[in-house]
Task: structure prediction
Amino acid sequence: DTGVSQDPRHKITKRGQNVTFRCDPISEHNRLYWYRQTLGQGPEFLTYFQNEAQLEKSRLLSDRFSAERPKGSFSTLEIQRTEQGDSAMYLCASREGGEAYGYTFGSGTRLTVV
Amino acid sequence: QKEVEQNSGPLSVPEGAIASLNCTYSDRVSQSFFWYRQYSGKSPELIMSIYSNGDKEDGRFTAQLNKASQYVSLLIRDSQPSDSATYLCAAPMIKAAGNKLTFGGGTRVLVKP
Result:
């Protein structure tokens, strides 16, 4: 297992379309996080899974956003009815344990809504 | 007050000099802190972690932590043009589920040959 994988790397979509991103974490890591990052800003937390349970969602995550992690393995993040403000880098990270462990990030998915 | 704050920069340093980056955090309960390097258009890469007060050295990087002052810093010695990147400070929010990391806005470093 070479790290966290995200697919696709880039996505251009028209406003109003739905998009789905996938993240495959490091296999031994039971904690998975989604973040969003816009230009010149640090990553902002979106949601957190421990195994298959979604334990926290940010207020940034409107009802157009949904995330799943079936069977506690890969995760998907779906954005419905995309808006131009959704254009950002979507980062997935996984972590081996709790507070003492840093994240390993995937390469990210760059979303552009036109 | 933001939970993790950094000077956005850019911090311009000549090649071979020391780059000094600062970060303050608001959660007094946080025990571990992380520095990530992010090249333009790429994802963040973990370069340092620190858990105890004092200094921690790894190659040309030194992280410094002062929990009483809620302050963590990163020194880059003998700066190289390849160190030009944005450096993100992160701390876990202990009251949050999964001790999620909160990131500062990042400090952009430019190393000039």
Observations:
- Chain B touches chain A through 31 residues (CB under 8 Å).
- The longest strand of chain B covers residues 85-92.
- The mean pLDDT of chain B is 93.
- Chain B is about 0% helix and 55% strand.
